[in-house]
């Protein structure tokens, strides 16, 4: 049987030594000596080798490691300095050879990487852990992703006010905007669009482990116990929110806040693989990452016939990406589009066509919602007696008091906007 192939992407004078050591060891062979990381990843993607040996370099990030792990290629780091060794470990490389290590240490690291060939990216250190046993003392809060189909069903309105209600109930709440098509959380909260926000936290995660202190640094406080990580509002910035980086952000957010609410985009497709010959960034990766990291998914639609149709179709696609049944919320409910008893009509339609056993409804309340948006305030601040605010507050109370944050409410009162069968 042929010896496992090793791809080398090492900069500087170390490259010749690494190639010589690997080629001189029994059971290993160098199959490609690459000029840079891009050439090495292309070779790995083509199935040339089983292990990539890399040195520290600017374009080596968590996303690259996730892609290599996905195709079944292990990574070994050979840093140039002790500080570089720490950086390689932080982005998730499990096998890092100390600078100036003996030849047999390099060979052993490559062999260990081959023996594992992890199907996922190697697990980084737990966020916030600096000493033995500290991780056991950290209580993690739930992540709630707010999703909705195309057509502006009111995802941001529900997400912002749901987060506001959690904060008013006494929970330290973090609101995150990862809508890569039209993030609007900043505007809804009266914040500047150009705040670093979630892009800065994702960038930190991209090159190392992000922890609660990173989120504390970039999150902006907009109300008592409510902080916000604003999103990207310019279309060209969406590649900054990569899925692997955001996966780390959710781990840190669970430590940084008692509840994290994420405003997602509408897209669930991964069509980039069909449109490009090479690996391409995925615009919907931010939404898919949030759905993977969430304990509860709130699916928002509108009461208009077209809105219900889009929600029914969207729920079919959504269920393929989430484990637990989503909590379904129908927004802008009114008799003009759903009949004399609109709440029951909407619930009946979703039960019949999408098998939704319980539907939360938010009544049509344009005056209060428009006034809150214009002022950059929460409904609870601008119109506390608003029917829409009361409905979202009831949903928040039910989710907050549930034993399992991923479970849908069982016995909501009709006055609290829950309709079930």
Brief write-up:
With 421 residues, the protein is α/β, with parallel strands linked by helices. It is built from 18 helices and 14 strands.
Keywords, please?
421 residues, alpha/beta, Rossmann fold, 9-stranded mixed β-sheet, 5-stranded parallel β-sheet, 41% helix, elongated
Q: Remind me, CATH topology of the largest domain?
A: Rossmann fold
Largest sheet strand order: 8-9-7-10-6-11-12-13-14
Global mean pLDDT: 85
**Largest β-sheet summary:** 9 strands, mixed
How many domain regions?
Answer: 2
- What is the structural class? alpha/beta
CATH architecture annotation of the largest domain: 3-Layer(aba) Sandwich
Shape: elongated
Number of helices: 18
Low-confidence stretches: 118-136, 403-416
The percent range for helix content is 40-55%
Strand tally, please? 14
Characterization of the model:
This protein has helices at residues 14-23, 37-45, 62-70, 82-90, 103-116, 155-168, 185-188, 197-206, 212-218, 243-256, 272-275, 285-293, 305-319, 335-338, 342-354, 366-375, 379-382, 387-401, and strands at 5-9, 29-33, 51-54, 74-77, 95-96, 143-147, 173-177, 220-223, 226-229, 259-263, 296-302, 327-333, 358-363, 418-420. Helix content is 41%, strand content 16%. Helix 10 (243-256) runs parallel beside helix 12 (285-293). It contains 18 helices and 14 strands. The protein folds into two domains: 5-116, Cobalamin-binding domain (Rossmann fold, 3-Layer(aba) Sandwich); 137-420, Rossmann fold. Strand 4, helix 4 (82-90) and strand 5 form a beta-alpha-beta unit. The protein has 421 residues and is of the alpha/beta class.
């Amino acid at each position: 049987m042929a010896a496992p192939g090793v791809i080398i992407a090492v900069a500087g004078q170390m490259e010749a030594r690494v190639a010589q050591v690997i080629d001189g060891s029994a059971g290993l062979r160098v199959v490609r000596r690459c000029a840079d990381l891009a050439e090495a990843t292309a070779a790995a993607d083509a199935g040339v080798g089983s292990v990539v040996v890399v040195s520290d370099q600017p374009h080596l990030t968590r996303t690259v490691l996730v892609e290599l792990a996905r195709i079944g290629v292990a990574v070994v780091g050979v840093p140039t300095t002790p500080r570089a060794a720490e950086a390689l470990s932080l982005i998730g490389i499990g096998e890092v050879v100390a600078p100036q290590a003996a030849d047999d240490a390099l060979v052993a690291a490559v062999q260990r990487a081959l023996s594992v060939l992890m199907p996922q990216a190697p697990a980084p250190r737990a966020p916030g852990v600096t000493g033995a046993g500290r991780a056991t003392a950290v209580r993690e809060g739930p992540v709630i992703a707010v999703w909705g189909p195309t057509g502006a069903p009111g995802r941001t309105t529900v997400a912002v006010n749901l987060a506001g209600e959690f904060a008013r109930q006494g929970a330290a709440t973090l609101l995150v905007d990862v809508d890569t098509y039209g993030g609007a959380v900043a505007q809804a909260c009266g914040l500047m669009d150009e705040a670093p926000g979630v892009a800065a936290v994702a960038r930190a995660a991209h090159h190392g482990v992000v922890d609660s202190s990173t989120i504390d640094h970039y999150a902006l406080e907009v109300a008592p116990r409510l902080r916000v990580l604003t999103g990207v509002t310019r279309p060209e910035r969406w590649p900054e929110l990569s899925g692997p980086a955001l996966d780390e952000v959710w781990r840190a957010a669970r430590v940084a806040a008692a509840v994290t609410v994420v405003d997602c985009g509408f897209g669930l497709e991964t069509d980039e693989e069909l449109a490009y010959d090479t690996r391409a960034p995925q615009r919907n990766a931010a939404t898919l990452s949030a759905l993977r990291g969430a304990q509860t998914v709130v699916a928002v639609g509108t009461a208009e016939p077209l809105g219900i149709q889009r929600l029914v179709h969207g729920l079919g696609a959504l269920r393929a990406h989430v484990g637990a049944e989503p909590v379904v919320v129908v927004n802008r409910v009114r008799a003009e589009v759903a009949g004399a008893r609109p709440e029951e009509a909407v619930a009946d339609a979703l039960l019949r066509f999408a098998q939704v056993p319980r539907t939360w409804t938010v009544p049509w309340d344009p005056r209060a919602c428009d006034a809150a948006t214009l002022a950059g305030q929460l409904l609870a601040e601008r119109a506390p007696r608003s029917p829409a605010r009361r409905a979202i507050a009831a949903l928040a109370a039910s989710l907050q008091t549930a034993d399992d944050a991923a479970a849908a409410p069982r016995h909501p009162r009709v006055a609290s906007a829950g309709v079930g069968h």
